[in-house]
Write a structure and sequence with these properties.
heterodimer; A: alpha+beta; 20% strand; B: four-stranded antiparallel β-sheet; 10 strands; 37% helix; globular
Chain lengths: 412, 230
């Protein structure tokens, strides 16, 4: 086997230019696949995490009927205690307690329907992208009773500025119509009109007071994980903690944000198809090279067979040649791709520059204007491994042709 | 003549070879019967298309006759499996091709050692045998050169070394001087005669070269697939 490996190594360098072209083809193809995959997965991860952190976490706990007909009457009792307990689970980075409801915001300029979110300001400041998008005033803090943060579109509609007052009317826990006066503390701008024109953040205690919820209760608890990939494994543990509370259920982010889940499926399918074409093109180049290499060396193979060499040894040699070329290409392309993925996972790509200053949203989730690639060693190894295995499988075609040489034509 | 020199290395009995069928059938060999004894240096001459290469293919177990029998050291080769024929070629036959046919990615010494390696000989034994041979045939110092770094004559010397290194019963040489100049051709023939004399290697050489024919101990002439003169 050592002899075949040595001969394979020497053989690939006999046609130096052809080998280099093939290596570059593989490297370029793999580089492009890594760049596309890590960028797309970075965008997907960003969309999911932004949505989860801005909304109700990667896993959401709520009343089992809340999904069908959201209402402030369907609450999670003792939400604070449950959240504390959930934070003890491994992979849980944080929890967020939310009170969600609908209402009408009114000022001297008019009245518009809004979505009310009672939040924990300290968590939002740390987690939610919305807290970073304040364009006027400031985001809430824990002492901001009866203060709200509104979006720029709603502020324009109601002609509001930080410090100005507005009235919020809604139905409380018992279904009674209530209204309270709030003062604007800050105005955010995500770039998504649906969000900027409707979502109003207020402190959790203010929301409990507005909706007259039982003490300690909330409509949702969001569980934020430190690893998006662990949702499926943590969900059963979360459900286990709810076993003694029959009226509660836990949902993964796909259920809470179906639009985002649909986007992920479409996005992944799209880039996988594109990568499929690219890989097919690269593999065709490799196949062509290997076949040419075998065809050109029929006399060499025939000589070895005539001298008593075995077809198996020749096949092994050609297999090694394919493997070596693939390894070289994968080494070059993999390292270049990994460097690119690593660099942009730290530096990010500014989408606003690329999109000419336009804001970007995906399935109703405002996307960070800076996108970071996903630098994941397992993902890189998977892509490199897939390319290597595909090349090896492909090499079986020329390998199978090695023995199809006529030794009786050697003596003429 | 000693008993060992009388031992038949090759025996063909009424060998025929037909390529194609029907109207386009070509009768390359028409009942060739021939015996070559151990230690002989036999030249086989004849015009192109006379059947020299076809007969070498049959004797060298590279092809099978349409009819007749080919014996190598008393073993009927016609019916042997492909694997057995391959083993027979490896262990008992050496080949020298017109265009050298060295493996381009092996050095000169690796080429010469190749059959010994296929036979499973240790690296030490291979190196020892082939180094001596290289000295004997004037290739000393060229062991680590690749074929493209050698002249045509040097490549053919390596090919001869490869053919005789494993001490085969028979060396088949297909126009070994055809691709080299006259002086080199003469030197190559000197080498083969030397190996025949000193090592007792049996040679069967197909040739168009009159000097080879003149020096051969035995000359067989073929025409239209038949032996016409010996």
């Amino acid at each position: 086997m050592g002899q075949q490996f040595l001969l394979a190594w020497r053989s690939i360098w006999r046609q130096r230019r052809r080998t280099l072209i093939t290596v570059i083809s593989i490297a370029f193809g793999l580089f492009f696949v890594i760049a596309l995959t890590t960028l797309e997965e970075g965008v997907i991860r960003s969309v999911i995490n932004n949505g989860a952190e801005m909304q109700a976490g990667h896993i959401t706990i709520e009343h089992e009927e809340y999904r069908l007909a959201p209402s402030v009457s369907l609450v999670v009792p003792q939400a604070d205690e449950l959240a504390d307990e959930l934070e003890k689970l491994s992979s849980v980075e944080a929890t967020k307690i939310l009170i969600g409801g609908e209402g009408v915001a009114r000022s001297g300029a008019g009245a518009f329907g809004i979505v009310i979110a009672g939040v924990e300001p300290s968590i939002e400041r740390e987690r939610s992208p919305l807290a970073d998008k304040i364009v006027e005033g400031e985001y809430l803090d824990e002492t901001d009773a009866k203060r709200v943060v509104i979006g720029s579109v709603l502020a324009d509609r109601l002609n509001l500025k930080p410090g100005k007052k507005l009235v919020i009317a809604t139905n409380d826990f018992d279904g009674e119509l209530v209204e309270q006066l709030f003062r604007v503390k800050g105005i955010y701008r995500t770039g998504t009109d649906e969000i900027d024109g409707a979502l109003v953040h207020m402190q959790l205690a203010s929301a409990r007071d507005l909706f007259k919820l039982p003490s300690g209760s909330a409509t949702q608890i969001g569980v934020i994980l430190n690893d998006l990939g662990r949702v499926a494994s943590i969900l059963p543990q979360v459900e286990g903690r709810l076993a003694d509370q029959a009226a509660l259920s836990a949902h993964p982010w796909q259920t809470i944000m179906p639009g985002v889940a649909g986007y992920v499926v479409v996005e992944r399918s799209g880039y996988l198809i594109m990568e499929g074409f690219l890989i097919a093109l690269v593999l065709f180049t490799i196949l062509n090279t290997l076949l040419m290499s075998v065809t050109e060396r029929k006399k060499e193979f025939a000589t070895i067979l005539a001298l008593g060499g075995s077809k198996g040894a020749l096949r092994l040699q050609v297999f090694f040649e394919a493997a070596l070329i693939a390894l070289l290409g994968i080494l070059v392309g993999g390292l270049a791709g990994a460097y690119l993925a690593y660099y942009y996972s730290l530096e990010g790509i500014n989408l606003q520059e690329l999109s000419g200053g336009m804001d970007v949203d995906v399935a109703g989730v405002a996307l960070d204007t800076t996108i970071y690639t996903l630098f994941s060693v397992p993902l890189l190894l998977l892509l490199c491994g897939a390319m290597f295995i595909a090349t090896l499988i492909l090499s079986l075609v020329p390998v199978s042709r090695v023995g199809n040489v006529s030794i009786s034509t050697l003596l003429r | 003549m000693s008993e060992s020199q009388n031992r038949a290395i090759v025996e063909t009995r009424n060998v025929t070879k037909v390529f194609g069928k029907g109207d386009i059938a070509v009768h390359a060999l028409r009942g060739v019967s021939l015996t070559i004894s151990q230690g002989e240096f036999t030249a086989m001459a004849g015009p192109s298309g006379s059947g020299k290469s076809t007969l070498l293919n049959m004797i060298g177990c590279l092809d099978r006759p349409t009819s007749g029998e080919v014996f190598l050291e008393g073993v009927l080769t016609n019916k042997l499996s492909g694997t057995k024929l391959s083993e027979l070629r490896r262990d008992r036959i050496g080949f020298v091709f017109q265009s050298y046919n060295l493996v381009p990615v092996m050095t000169a010494i690796e080429n010469a050692e190749y059959i010994l390696m296929l036979q499973g000989k240790s690296a030490q034994e291979r190196r020892s045998r082939v180094r001596d041979l290289f000295q004997q045939i004037g290739l000393g110092g060229m062991e680590n050169r690749f074929p493209n770094q050698l002249s045509g004559g040097q490549q053919q010397r390596v090919a001869i070394a490869r053919a005789v290194a494993a001490e085969p019963a028979l060396v088949l040489a297909d126009e070994p001087t055809a691709n080299v100049d006259t002086d080199t051709g003469k030197a190559l023939m000197d080498l083969m005669y030397q190996l025949n004399e000193e090592r007792g290697v049996t040679f069967l050489v197909s040739t168009h070269d009159p000097t080879v024919m003149e020096r051969a101990k035995r000359l067989i002439r073929l025409r239209d697939g038949q032996i016409v003169n010996e």
